[in-house]
Design a protein that fits this description.
The chain contains 9 helices and 12 strands. By secondary structure, it is α+β, with helices and mostly antiparallel strands. The protein has 2 domains: 172 residues, Ribosomal Protein S5, domain 2; 125 residues, 2-Layer Sandwich (Alpha-Beta Plaits).
């Protein structure tokens, strides 16, 4: 059996605009996904039996015939179709795989709930690329698409800067280790956004030549937020970022949903879902009590979810 592991992701800055070249600050998470693959020689029909586990249950299973990768059994056709697309792309990038001479049993295990939006697909793609010894960004580009910042997080030991230059990913290490981390919390909004749908909405809304100035502003915020040691300055930068994106996306800032929150709030990732960054001096219990009162019960302090160099390696 071969085993691979990749980390999930949170995008602190440049959501949406990272697709157009803005510099983003991306945070790998302590949560991730493993991939276990067993293979055996086939003496008849070849197949892939796939079992995907969330932390507490089997959440998806399917079987695909080889070498065609046709779905022959599944409990979720939409998930199977997405997986099939990724595997067909993998097969094209490494023709030595899925030739019909080998049977495979694949088990994936998530450390996080699938609906949290921490990178179910990106961790899978990174793991599959490691197994197939191919470039994960190429696998992403020709399968489900996206900016690629989540792929950068998959193997990162700590926060990274990510940007697309001439459509090529550029990843550099960030020294982001905020001394005010005890005032930063990540709250699950209770809703998972469809990233592909949000990307389509963004692309329909904007043209590249309209965004040059905004991309520069957001990139400057990324740089400033990554180095400031002042909590109030960090909050100011996050508020500025939120207002700029609200104007671009024609959507209200997340603080409008929680106007009485004792602190600052910033949307993360696809707006309207996934996680929210909460900044407050009320302490963990105060922030937790507030969001529990709003029906939101999944909250992580910064150091509990963001991977740092001091975290145990996997």
């Amino acid at each position: 059996m071969r085993r691979f592991y990749s980390h999930g992701k949170l995008l602190l800055t440049a959501e949406y605009l990272v697709l157009r070249g803005a510099k983003a600050l991306a945070l790998p998470t302590t949560f991730g996904q493993s991939l276990e693959i067993e293979s055996e020689e086939s003496y008849g029909h070849s197949y892939v039996n796939w079992f995907a586990y969330s932390p507490d249950k089997l959440w998806f299973k399917t079987s695909l015939e080889l070498p065609s990768l046709d779905v022959i059994a599944t409990d979720d056709r939409l998930k199977s179709a997405k997986l099939q697309l990724i595997l067909l792309t993998l097969q094209q990038l490494n023709p030595k795989l899925f030739t019909g001479q080998t049977n495979y049993k694949v088990i994936t295990r998530l450390d996080f709930e699938p609906e949290w939006g921490l990178g179910t697909s990106s961790t899978l793609i990174a793991n599959l690329a490691s197994w197939a010894r191919i470039d994960p960004y190429t696998l992403l580009r020709y399968s489900i698409g996206g900016s690629g910042y989540d792929i950068a997080c998959a193997k990162a030991r700590s926060p990274v800067f990510y940007e697309l230059k001439q459509f090529r990913p550029v990843v550099t290490q960030s020294d982001f280790q905020p001394p005010f981390a005890d005032k930063l919390f990540f709250v699950y909004s209770g809703k998972k956004q469809d990233s592909a749908q949000e990307i389509r909405y963004f692309n329909e809304l904007t043209e590249d030549d309209e965004l040059t100035e905004l991309i520069a502003e957001i990139s400057a915020i990324t740089d400033a937020a990554a180095i400031t040691t002042d909590y109030q300055e960090f909050c100011r930068l996050m508020d500025q970022h939120e207002q700029l994106l609200a104007g671009l996306l024609l959507q209200p800032p997340v603080k409008s949903r929680f106007p009485d929150f004792p602190g600052h709030l910033k949307s993360l990732g696809a707006w309207g879902g996934d996680f929210i960054l909460a900044m407050s001096q009320e302490g963990e219990q105060g922030v937790r009590d507030y969001f529990n009162g709003k029906g939101l019960h999944t909250l992580f302090p910064y150091h509990a979810i963001v991977r740092q160099k001091t975290n145990s390696p996997r």
